[in-house]
Inverse folding.
C-alpha cells in the first residue's frame, strides 16, 4: 500500500474501426470518471500524424475537461515547446488558469510529437529540430511570459517532462517539479532522478525537488484479462521496434492473433516487467515498489487500452486496492 497522489496521463488512443472524433468525445467521460474516483490530476499528451493516437492539442483537451469537471487538476503532459511560441503557451495556459484557478498544470516537453520529419518541420514552420539551447530558451521564456506578460492572476503549475539526465538538469536548474517518463524510457529513470535531486535549485515554482513518476499501468480482475487488454499496445510497440510509426491501434482480438517474433516478445516482456500490468494485487505491489525505489511524490498512470469502460475500470480497481483517499 502507498499513500501518495495517483494521477493519469491520457494519450487518446484511436481505436481501429472508430473515428478520431469518437475518441475525442470520450475525453469528457474519462475526466468525469476519474474525478469521481478521486484521482488527483489528468494530463494530455501532444501527438501528431499517428493512426493510433489522436492529434488533439493538450490545451484544447484541458479546456474541454475543465468545463466538464469541477475539482480534478488538468493540463498538458506535455505540450511540446519546440512546436509553439513561448508567449502563445503562456497566454493559453495563463488564460486557463484564470478561468479555473488552482486546477491547471503546464507540463512542458521537448520532442516533436511525431516520427514524420515533414510534419515536425510543418509544426515548426520549416525549421529543423530544436537545439538544446533553443529548448532551454523556450522553457525559460514561457515561464517568464507567464509572470511578466500574461499576469492574469492565478498561474498554472509548471512541470518539466524528462526522460534523460539532460532534461533532469534543466528542470533542476529552473527549480521546476519534474515528471519522469518511466513509461517511455524506464532504463533512464534512476539516472534522471539522481541528476535532478543532485542539481536542484529552489525557485518561486518549487522549494524542494518534487518528482512525478509516469508508469504504464493496466489492471484487470485476472492476469489473463490484463494481458488481453495490453495486447493492442504491444502491437504498436512491436511496430516501433521495427521503425514503423504508422501502426493503427488494433482491437484486443486482432492483437491476440498478431504474430510477434521471439525478439519482440523478449523486448516487450522486458519493458512490461518495469511497468505495472496484471491483477490489482500485482499492480499495487509493483507501484508500491516503484514508489519506494524512486521516492516519487506522485504516480501518474497511463493506461492505453482499447475500450473506454475497460480503461476506467483499470483506474477504479487500482484506486479501490491502493489505500489512497479521494482527496489524494
Amino acid at each position: 500500500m502507498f499513500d501518495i497522489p495517483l494521477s493519469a496521463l491520457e494519450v487518446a488512443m484511436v481505436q481501429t474501426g472508430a473515428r478520431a472524433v469518437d475518441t475525442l468525445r470520450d475525453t469528457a467521460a474519462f475526466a468525469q470518471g476519474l474525478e469521481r474516483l478521486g484521482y488527483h490530476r489528468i494530463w494530455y499528451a501532444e501527438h501528431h500524424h499517428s493512426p493510433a493516437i489522436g492529434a488533439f492539442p493538450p490545451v484544447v483537451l484541458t479546456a474541454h475537461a475543465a468545463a466538464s469537471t469541477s475539482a480534478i487538476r488538468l493540463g498538458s503532459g506535455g505540450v511540446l515547446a519546440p512546436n509553439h511560441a513561448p508567449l502563445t503557451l503562456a497566454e493559453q495556459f495563463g488564460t486557463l488558469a484564470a478561468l479555473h484557478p488552482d486546477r491547471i498544470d503546464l507540463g512542458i516537453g521537448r520532442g516533436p510529437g511525431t516520427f514524420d520529419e515533414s510534419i515536425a518541420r510543418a509544426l515548426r514552420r520549416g525549421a529543423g529540430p530544436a537545439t538544446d539551447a533553443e529548448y532551454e530558451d523556450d522553457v525559460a521564456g514561457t515561464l517568464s511570459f507567464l509572470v511578466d506578460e500574461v499576469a492574469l492572476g492565478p498561474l498554472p503549475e509548471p512541470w518539466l517532462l524528462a526522460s534523460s539526465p539532460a532534461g533532469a538538469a534543466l528542470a533542476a536548474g529552473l527549480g521546476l517539479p519534474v515528471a519522469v517518463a518511466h513509461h517511455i524510457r524506464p532504463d533512464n529513470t534512476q539516472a534522471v532522478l539522481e541528476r535532478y535531486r543532485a542539481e536542484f535549485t529552489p525557485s518561486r515554482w518549487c522549494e524542494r525537488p518534487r518528482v512525478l513518476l509516469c508508469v504504464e499501468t493496466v489492471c484487470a480482475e485476472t492476469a489473463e484479462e490484463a494481458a488481453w487488454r495490453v495486447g493492442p499496445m504491444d502491437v504498436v510497440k512491436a511496430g516501433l521496434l521495427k521503425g514503423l510509426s504508422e501502426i493503427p491501434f488494433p482491437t484486443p482480438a486482432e492483437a491476440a492473433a498478431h504474430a510477434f517474433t521471439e525478439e519482440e516478445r523478449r523486448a516487450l516482456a522486458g519493458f512490461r516487467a518495469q511497468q505495472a500490468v496484471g491483477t490489482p494485487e500485482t499492480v499495487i505491489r509493483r507501484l508500491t515498489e516503484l514508489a519506494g525505489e524512486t521516492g516519487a511524490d506522485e504516480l501518474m498512470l497511463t493506461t492505453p487500452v482499447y475500450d473506454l469502460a475497460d480503461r476506467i475500470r483499470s483506474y477504479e480497481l487500482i484506486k479501490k486496492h491502493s489505500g489512497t483517499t479521494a482527496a489524494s
